Amino acid sequence: MENLNPWTGRIDAEDGERGHRWHQVVQCQHIDELPEHEKALVLVGYPNDSGVAANKGRTGAAEGPNALRHALANLPWCKEGSLYDVGDSTIFDVLDDTQCSYASLVSCALKKKAKVIGLGGGHDIAWAAFQGLAAALPQGTNIGIINIDAHLDLRKPSPAGTSGTPFRQISEWCHQQKMPFHYACFGVSKAANTSALFDYAKESNTRLLLDYEFNIESAIATVTPFLESIDSLYVTVCMDAFSSSVAPGVSAPAALGIPPIAVIQFLQWLGKQQSPLSFRWHYSDIAELNPTYDAEMKTARLAARLVFELTDAMG
């Protein structure tokens, strides 16, 4: 993806504000100048795939944030409130430092009372995002994570983290803090996870649905007790959860995958549960969008639709 201004697109001047698209309302703002605004949506980029390389995946996801911005630009803006793009986190030679940079941006945006959506990048974005959430929210906040993913990403760092270790890192952090680890992974492929990963999932009380089990009814039944015990929700969507026929541009393509429509229905349902189940949905992200392999921008377009739906569901 060419590194040009992604926020350009069609303008329907005859429709006035009702015809506005994302590129017409987005404000590119330095994080230090971000105003406090409860109805703001803030986009943060994570242009990094060093964690993917360390996990022996195919690289290219570093270009994901800009590709996603391009795909978002022409979507209709249907929300009240403001849209900000605070740019990308700084990329360092050491993955931990890159993750700290991203965590700082997320934390700053959340402290401004905004909702935040992360644009990845490898799935190591999740450990960075969790650190940002934990820093911004009151101490003792129970954070629940729903991961839409073919992979459990519960590998043990050996010794450093990768795109395959973020939820193990979160689990270990929760254990150190004597806090519960609330994690659900939907769309898991038996053919893409070792027995050791399923063992740790069981040990850590991970709730999961296999790819061929996933539908709106099974997702609701699995996650409802989970939602009743959390204060803040974090939803992360790995684009390799979907079949390579609809999402070819990912770090690890899926042969089977789960239906995008069912995922969208589930996200819409989640959004409606915030009040009755008394949790807040502060943050979401997209991971593993890899434009290098993305024929006709299929994956970027699907990722943009998911961001559109997340924006609506988060409120």
TrEMBL record:
PROSITE patterns: ARGINASE_2. Keywords: Histidine metabolism, Hydrolase, Manganese, Metal-binding. Mn(2+) 1 binds at H123, D149, H151, D153, C238, D240. It catalyses: N-formimidoyl-L-glutamate + H2O = formamide + L-glutamate. It is an enzyme of class 3 (hydrolase). Binds 2 manganese ions per subunit. Mn(2+) 2 binds at D149, H151, C238, D240. GO terms for biological process: L-histidine catabolic process to glutamate and formamide; L-histidine catabolic process to glutamate and formate; putrescine biosynthetic process from arginine, via agmatine. InterPro entries: HutG, Ureohydrolase, Ureohydrolase_dom_sf. Gene3D superfamilies: Ureohydrolase domain. Its cofactor is Mn(2+). GO terms for molecular function: agmatinase activity; formimidoylglutamase activity; manganese ion binding. Its EC number is 3.5.3.8. Pathway: Amino-acid degradation; L-histidine degradation into L-glutamate; L-glutamate from N-formimidoyl-L-glutamate (hydrolase route): step 1/1. Belongs to the arginase family. Catalyzes the conversion of N-formimidoyl-L-glutamate to L-glutamate and formamide. HAMAP family: Formimidoylglutam. NCBIfam families: hutG (TIGR01227). This is Formimidoylglutamase. It comes from Alteromonas pelagimontana. The lineage of its organism: Bacteria, Pseudomonadati, Pseudomonadota, Gammaproteobacteria, Alteromonadales.
